[in-house]
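DATA SHEET
Item: assembly model
Revision: 1
Owner: S.N.
Input lines:
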Amino acid sequence: MEIKSDLYLGDCREELKKLPDNSIDLIFTSPPYADQRNNTYGGIRPDKYVDWFLPIAEQLLRVLKPTGTFVLNIKEKVVNGERSTYVMELIIEMRKQGWLWTEEFIWHKKNSYPGKWPNRFRDSWERLIQFNKDKKFKMYQEAVMVPMGDWAKTRLKNLSNTDKIRDESKVGSGFGKNISNWINRDKAYPTNVIHLATECNNKKHSAAFPEGLPEWFIKLFTKEGDTVLDPFMGSGTTNIIANKMKRNSIGIEIFEEYYKMVEKELIPVELLLLDPKNTYEKTKPDRRITVR
Amino acid sequence: MEIKSDLYLGDCREELKKLPDNSIDLIFTSPPYADQRNNTYGGIRPDKYVDWFLPIAEQLLRVLKPTGTFVLNIKEKVVNGERSTYVMELIIEMRKQGWLWTEEFIWHKKNSYPGKWPNRFRDSWERLIQFNKDKKFKMYQEAVMVPMGDWAKTRLKNLSNTDKIRDESKVGSGFGKNISNWINRDKAYPTNVIHLATECNNKKHSAAFPEGLPEWFIKLFTKEGDTVLDPFMGSGTTNIIANKMKRNSIGIEIFEEYYKMVEKELIPVELLLLDPKNTYEKTKPDRRITVR
DNA sequence: GTTCCGCATGAATCGATAG
DNA sequence: ACTATCGATTCATGCGGAA
């Protein structure tokens, strides 16, 4: 199977128009938050945020397949001691465009930014808002099942390495055959709370979110050969992970430096995928998501 | 110190009018969620929820002290495959009444209700929305501190050079007050994500939330002798915990059976408090909150 | 080779100071 | 009065060098 990654350099308000209707299976993106990342999209003011995002949301609605899903990672900032309301207003307005607000997942960031203030604690969670075009969307729940209970974990630890390799060589289809007989009873469906630490220490690419985050949603909402879009590509975490998981990916980035960086990283990944010996699972077994 | 608990039997839309202005330090409540508890508040439909709640919110704004806090425990239900928007609309409308939306805490329910749906996972979190009347409200952060992570113990023994450098570069006067913050510190401030299991095995009453939840917020926003209000008392968890923590409490309940049940439970608590040997801390040391 | 330990830093937020 | 800039605060994580 040939996996493609298409990158666009430019403002997604324009670049999105180049994509055909009903062509995307999953949109996973983290737009610049209000007054954040001022160097790229010019620091959108909280009170202008909804107006700025709505035309983009309309394009996203057009390019998404009816069975597809849009996952929006966002969090409102504090202004003048209060949380801004632009995220809630955005959800209400996007519903008027025709989006269905299916669910809100919580990303719990265990290592949230430190600080002490007289009137508030550290903010350690972000929203992952799931939108759909249609009530009938595709969801592969089995792909993100997690081991149940502690004893299951210890037994997994005691498995031989060969068992682990065989296990992990079957991505998307759950666990490997040889242990599936007894592990099957001990898998549970996850919840709508996702525990992941931020990667604040990665020197190569300091991404807004850890790889595990797009990985989880790509597993849940797409299968191999599907197409993933990130209109605010940034350091390209979504696209790189999508490619490693054998999904086609489309990325749009306004900032040339980021664009070229991602381009450079995606080429080796593609060469790697062409070699049948080098699968994502064998070379990077440690990339498995840790969701509790 | 004499601790009182006043219970009102009736509809809080009427009963709240009996309370004086600016008299409450903390309102902690979990109102009937839309389309539930049909026997009491008549099963408020999601599309009528905001209209139903706003007059109550106005009364709450009136009775709350300017330094007080209102914590609203709520979660929107799924209607027709979509999350309802009434909670978001409520926040937006309450701000127009004069409420400040200070923060949104997440209650992560570790043992959420099991279940499986084709297009959705278990819902394991609820909103705890903090409203205030004024930017200057009272908050006793030290009361809810949690044990620090492991690294801190070793770091406290021999402060790293980084801390000294960071300190000196900013303060200039060497390690003075900054270091003293770290000495003798084995606790850290919590975040805005609260981990508590739901109480699934409480035989007497099926409360909307575990005792630890009101306990945490009572610790955080009140001191002994303050007054806590729950206008939707239900099984009285908030009031009973408040009394055990030596806070005055006011509860309003529309359903007589609940009202009498709470009344019966509160009397023994008050007798207990009159005996100087029986303090909350001595008799119930295990009630301390477990938040991670 | 493990394990241990030092180290840098992150979608943050507040209050004071300056224009 | 209202906005822009700046310093101070503080904890979990993963890396790399040391034991």
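QC remark: The interface with chain B takes residues 80-83, 85, 88-89, 91-92, 95, 100-104, 106, 108, 112, 116, 118-125, 135, 137, 139, 141, 189-193 of chain A (CB under 8 Å).
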